[in-house]
Amino acid sequence: MAKMGQNAGLASAFRAISHPARVVVAVFARARRGVPMTAPVSFRPLPSYLALAILILAAAGLATPARADWVHGQAQRVFGPDTAQTDACRDATNRARAAALRARLGERLSSEDLMVCTDKAHKGACSLNRAIWSTVDGAIRAVRDKRVVVRPGPVAGFQTCIVSLEADVGVAIGHYDPSFDLGVTMNEHVFRPGDTLTLTITPTQPMHIAVFQWLPYRHTGMTVTRIFPNRYDTDDLFTRPGTIPTAAGATRYAMRLKFPGGMPPSRQMVDEYLMIVATKKKVDFRESYTLDEFRGRLLEIPRNVSRLIRRAYSVVRGPGPTDAGLESP
């Protein structure tokens, strides 16, 4: 009989839960105080909005915090007397954040990505840039448990900054559509000042294309720029294989590369990056973004209606125009 009474009490509680104007927290309160569930429980009708608020608060108190998106990342940077500790630890922090993003998104470096970092003098910075761009479609929403430790380096006069952290990584919702894809090839991977860049696009079905360029040596401001479509080349719909610039656009402009001015004489090569964004419907993008803004914009596009392709290339120092990025006539 006691068991039947307990079941009857639970049944009453479930009936109360199903009614939005009844309070169920009294059942939980009695259980916590050790009052048998067979004891009569009275429910007083309350306004539906108040009952709903109490139910939400009760659920929040009983829920287990989700930890699926928190990912560990760790990295280090060895630095000598010519590098400030703050700069070295900032670099190590960026590497740790990139490591957390890679752990969540997966390692997706192509052979073309690996080819770009050939300047030995700046290979470390280039590798970091490459890692950042390979995870640009993920965003770190928060960081916790960050630890910074500075230890003696491998040789006298050098130190090592070690950074470990946990990052809450956000990714775009859904899964990519296997039938919605495209091939992207560049006419070269290493350019000299004055050379022109051409992309060949091979879509599997009709799609809208936008191309963005990231210049990592611009450390602040709008470092991501939309280079296609542009005012000279506005038709972004590809229904068959084609090029960027398009056949019509090539009569009006060229994507001509330049070595950036203001680089130290020791810098003989810079790495630059492209993101080709294909969508099933036209998406309006701004002309420029900060890197974090661009990450956030990509997260707004569901994966099942988009496809992202990354490409990397280098520009070597040499005679010709000196400035950053592309130019048009």
Describe the structure.
The chain is flat and about 60 Å long. It has helices at residues 2-18, 25-33, 48-62, 85-105, 111-115, 123-134, 291-299, and strands at residues 70-79, 138-152, 159-171, 182-186, 190-191, 199-203, 207-214, 224-228, 237-238, 242-244, 256-257, 269-279, 288-289, 306-316, 326-327. The protein has 3 domains: 2-62, no CATH class; 70-171, no CATH class; 182-327, Immunoglobulin-like (Sandwich), CATH 2.60.40. Helix content is 27%, strand content 29%. Helix 4 packs parallel to helix 6 (123-134). The chain is of the alpha+beta class.
List keywords for this structure.
alpha+beta; Immunoglobulin-like; 329 residues; 3-stranded antiparallel sheet; flat
Short description:
This protein has about 325 residues and is α+β, with helices and mostly antiparallel strands. Helix content is about 25%, strand content about 30%.
Average pLDDT reading? 77
In helices, the fraction of residues equals 25-40%
The major β-sheet equals: 7 strands, mixed
Low-confidence stretches: 1-43, 48-68
CATH third-tier fold name of the largest domain: Immunoglobulin-like
Number of domains: 3
Gross geometry: flat
Number of helical regions: 7
Please count the beta strands (DSSP E, at least 2 residues each).
Answer: 15
Task: Write down the secondary-structure element order.
Answer: HHHEHHHEEEEEEEEEEEEHEE
Kindly provide the name of the CATH class of the largest domain.
Mainly Beta
End-to-end C-alpha gap: 91 Å
Rg calc: 28 Å
Structural class: alpha+beta
Strand content: 25-35%
Please tell me the CATH architecture of the largest domain by its name.
Sandwich
Give the oligomeric state of the chains in this entry, treating copies of one chain as homo and distinct chains as hetero.
Answer: single chain
